[in-house]
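U., I forgot to send this yesterday:
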Amino acid sequence: MAFISNLVRHPRKLFLRRALFQIHLWAGVLLSLYLIVISLSGSILVFQDELTATTFPSTLASYDRAKTASIPAVMHAFNGLYPGGKVTFLTVPTPTMPAYQLRAIDAQKHELRLLADPQTAAIKLQPRTWLNVVHDLHIYLLLGSKHGIQINGIGGVVLLLLCITGLFLWWPGIKLWVRRLRISFRHSWRRINFDAHNAIGIWTLVLVSWWAISGIYFAWYKQVGFVVNAVSPLKGMVAPKPPPPTVSNGAHASLEEIITAAQQASPPAFEYVDTWGAHGEGPGQFSKPVAMASDGESIIYIADAATGFVHKFSPSGEPRLSFQDDRSDIQPIDLAVDAGAAIYVADGRRGTVAIFFSDGMRHRELRTGAPSAVRQSMHIAVDAYGTTYVAAKHPYGIRKFSPGLRPIGSWGGTAAKESPVDDPSSLVVGPDGLVYLCESAQPQIKVYDANGVVQRTAVLSTDTDPQLTGIAVNRKFIFAVGAANPSVYVWSLDGSFQRAQDLSTWVPGAGTSTVRKIVVTPANDLLVLDTAAARVFRFRLHLQ
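Result:
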């Protein structure tokens, strides 16, 4: 009780206050120069798009959406200027950034920063400007991506500690706290400086704390995203209330008329929306698409094994971003996206998983330990914690890696006592944290917990399509798509079979063996990737 009384009335008497003063003092000394650099560079980068546009050559044509050159035209111009080169990153023109921006590697493996005229598609070199230096200073402290972000995160932690200790030191007691909110100019300069420190500190506490939290987020965005989602999870919209029934004195409708009217008023369980995708080898185009994933914003990601591109699209197929790995020539065979929109790409050539930030910048690499004989069969999945699961042909099985990319478990391999994983065809982690696996030779989906214990099995009730090539899971259902027929099979989460939906009216390839992939987005869209046709078919789900 004495501690509480002193804290409320006489905080200066507490030893804890003197200890926190030393922490606050030295944290402030260490952070002063750091904060000046971060604040000034961050203030400049707020206007990065506008400032970048001012560095463009004056010879570029003005932005006109109706006259904007197509991506194939830009790629044709690039290939003519740099034979044997490849584009690893491309952004389309906007009113703010009125030019194509490309990152590329030429035939001699030199990295290139290029601009393309928004109307003529003419390629020009983009020199490194002062804005690039400011960006690297703010994000990496000019230390490179490996160390700079982590140092920034530590700076955010120290700044947050400075705010917490400062709040404790600011508190003068219940009788004097109002005085600490203002500055008195009737005293000596030392007192004015002291009052200014207290008043400015308390009035800017929320803003400075938010700076600290943002620095922590950018350094450890997955962990912060998981905490936020645990405290305030996203929830679906409330269904609209139907209008009150109207009373009619007319003749009653027959049952057939009621059923016909209901069928016309109610959308089908799988409502066809649109089809998109263009064949080609450039950004936003498909040559040999092999994998598809979706993030929490319903953005679609597609990996191409022939070109090495990873493409980002809106659900309706509008290109958002295309990039390749600028460090190595990877061969994508599967991909996954975590809760923080980090992109995981399985490399069938090297047996690794390359991890990229959401803007396509490479972050780090997971070494799976997969031998060369099974690398082409690799499939990956990521849960909400950032835990990565990798599955491949026997004897590899399924292996589990921590968010720090360390191996922490395995099952279904050589030493497995349970049934081995022979030839996986798809692997996902559901919203419930369970691992869902289907294999090429078995028309069923095995459901494991995070430790590899089988919880249930979703078995296909018909033998018309024994090979499942893609699975997806939402909060109510398990979905799978077959190879022999363009049909989607649906189970409830307890493994009971619900329905089979024939999509051959829209999706080609009935009667032929075609690898198809599916995703279900938070917007309740189901997308089917037909790898042979290089097209994506979108359906709106109306399942009860």
